[in-house]
Amino acid sequence: MNDTSPTRAEREARLEGMGCSRRRTEDARFIQGKGNYVDDLKLPGMLFGDFVRSPYAHARIKKIDVSKAAALPGVKAVLTANELKPVKLDWMPTLAGDVQAVLAGDKVLFQNQEVAFVIAEDRYIAADAVELVEVEYEDLPVVIDPFKAMDQNAPVLREDLKGKTEGAHGKRKHWNHIFNWEIGDQGATDAALNAAEVKIKELISYQRVHPSPLETCACVASMDKVRGELTVWGTFQAPHVVRTVAALLSGITEQKIHVIAPDIGGGFGNKVGVYPGYVCSIVGSIVLGVPIKWVEDRIENLTATAFARDYHMTTELAATKDGRITGLKVHVLADHGAFDACADPSKWPAGFFNIVTGSYDIPAAYVSVDGVYTNKAPGGVAYRCSFRVTEAAYCIERAIDVLAKKLKMDPAELRLKNLIRAEQFPYKSALGWEYDSGNYHVAMRKAMDAVGYSKLREEQRQKREAFKRGETRELMGIGVAFFTEIVGAGPTKNCDILGIGMFDSCEIRVHPTGAVIARLGTKSQGQGHETTYGQIIATELGIPADSINIEEGNTDTAPYGLGTYGSRSTPVSGAATAVAARKIKAKAQKIAAHLLEVAEGDLEWDIDGFRVKGLPERTKSMKEIAWAAYNNVPPGMEHGLEAVNYYDPPNMTFPFGAYICVCDVDADTGYTKIRRFYALDDCGTRINPMIIEGQVHGGLTEAFGIAMGQEIKYDETGNVVTGTFMDYFMPTAVETPVWETDFTVTPSPHHPIGAKGVGESPNVGGVPAFSNAVNDAFGHLDIGHIQMPHDGWRTWLAAKQAGLHK
Ligand code: CDP
């Protein structure tokens, strides 16, 4: 090696591979306003669609008169259910095995349900025409409270299901019942509860919230009648699934449908499903032969597209006097709204809620979930969490604190006592999961040391004394949460969407100059995939990340994939990327052996190429090998350097974390100030530490929003009273606390690079940490579990109930 040759460290640094805080490549266009979102798309002759929506939550439609709207200059068509019926598109299947009205025919089932679709020359004419559509309604009694949905005198909501005693997931108990799902050993759990020295029972509700991405849902459908081909650009988290659904619904063969998801401004689960806006735009374009654009406004997004949570979890814990948990029993009442449009893998009507035993070694557990219809918008998506996992984490983490209060034990100590021990991994939970890896005690102790936990408790004790003496009106709360996520759906043997197994994919092509294009079945919505997938390939193939282009979202070019949600990109497509790269590397090794005239086994990998063992000066870099792949391959070998992998994960990955929140509650105003928030995450091998930190900041901010104020609220007649950002809490930089992040690294043993997902962990762990902190502020007082969201009003009421107001 001469003096000017780069050192090994320099060669490695030049790759910007895994472990490097590489700057986000996509930001070059985002921060200059050069992103390409659906609403940026302008096509010749394009028309605009807008919906007539129901003002009622439950009403019969007596008559729809579109004549005035149709006569407005600039209006090209008005669709109602009558126009969709002949092409059998007035109803569409949901991901959960139910059907959903595309346009309401006989009756409406929630406020702002789609009733007619106006197509006009521009958005303003379409909006004016919407006002001219006359709909005669006869209002019907509404069901808003899920606890009343199965009353004997409850109105029948889904008349289309009349007489159907079997649903997609078994027997229906009532006309408003959707499914019952149970798992675990009921007998053993009841026995543990009966024998318990101490037990708690608490209704822990997770309110209805909405993912509310910055960009609302949108699409442009363009039917080329000459070629018989349909192109749909849309805000799709799972473009291939949309193409398959479009083929099944429209009868157009799948190769003639092109689905393109351009840049997406946040998804958080909201952009997984198929919405009436997509179907109506496609039908409009097929009928009129011109492109149709549909873009939701904010009120439509908040009130009509997929909500999240609305889970009401009656939770029982059994324990010994010294705090050993012996059993967990949960009954969930799940409010799914008017149609079951939950976005879960087909066989999992309650998602992965059976992760509810959390991070604890609980010998007996049983869960039963009942889904019910109400007069609310459909949905039930995983808003920045794996399927129903934030609900499960909130349930167990609140229950642990309730138990700690009853036992008069410190909640962190109670956790340490029951956490699964390192030597128990892989750990089989009482509800059936095999946790792949974890080192929980180390993480918990690191978190406690970092915040000075025992000092904080001492400060809290002193503050409580000062409060009693009347020297302060502030209550200090310390919220601890230890969570386990379950991400990377999933093994195809038990996870599918509409019958398609939940694998994911990556195709890599190395060009002659050593530059690379890689295409994947996932779709970034802001998570930085263009940056991080490139880093995996850079390390695996020894090619600088800057020479690698990552492409997602075009069904014509990307290999089939199930999309991005539930933090599955890294666990599934990240693995596919590594495996595809390794296939290329194996071929590259053969080419290198041919070029160096040695046996393959005489070579070893060295950062960015192969070298002959024992002769470090005899090397072939990947750049040289790439060139040779196109002109000098071993006899009998095909030219080219590319590979594809469809990865079927053997198991989920199980990221985990320890979060601690410190807050001060003003007893007189109910205002809660978050003084400190510490988040330790373990997502296994870290691909890009800076992106991980950004993901944690974003997720914590959303968790803060949910825990401290967000709720999609309905009045008793079914009006949504939180349909704008004036009423629905959206934290800005002003309200958002400062985050402290930290990590441990426990690689996943079955993932090719040991990585687990991370994007959703902070939502899963953050919500219970905030809620536990607010509840803990009242921990010394005689007051039960305080429900979320912890807005000023609710917290003020808690202070009043605790007798703190004169
Ligand atoms: O599926 P989604 O992209 O939403 O979630 P994810 O797999 O948790 O990844 C979110 C972002 O964090 C991606 O850019 C990942 O590449 C990055 N990440 C990472 O750098 N290291 C990990 N161990 C996990 C994720």
Automatic annotation (TrEMBL):
GO molecular function: anaerobic carbon-monoxide dehydrogenase activity; carbon-monoxide oxygenase activity; copper ion binding; iron ion binding; molybdenum ion binding
EC number: 1.2.5.3
Keyword Oxidoreductase: yes
Organism domain of life: Bacteria
Keywords: Copper, Metal-binding, Molybdenum, Oxidoreductase
Cofactor(s) demanded: Mo-molybdopterin cytosine dinucleotide; Cu(+)
All residue ranges annotated as the Aldehyde oxidase/xanthine dehydrogenase a/b hammerhead domain in the record: 32-141
Subunit text: Dimer of heterotrimers. Each heterotrimer consists of a large, a medium and a small subunit.
The protein's name: Carbon monoxide dehydrogenase large chain
Record organism: Hypericibacter terrae
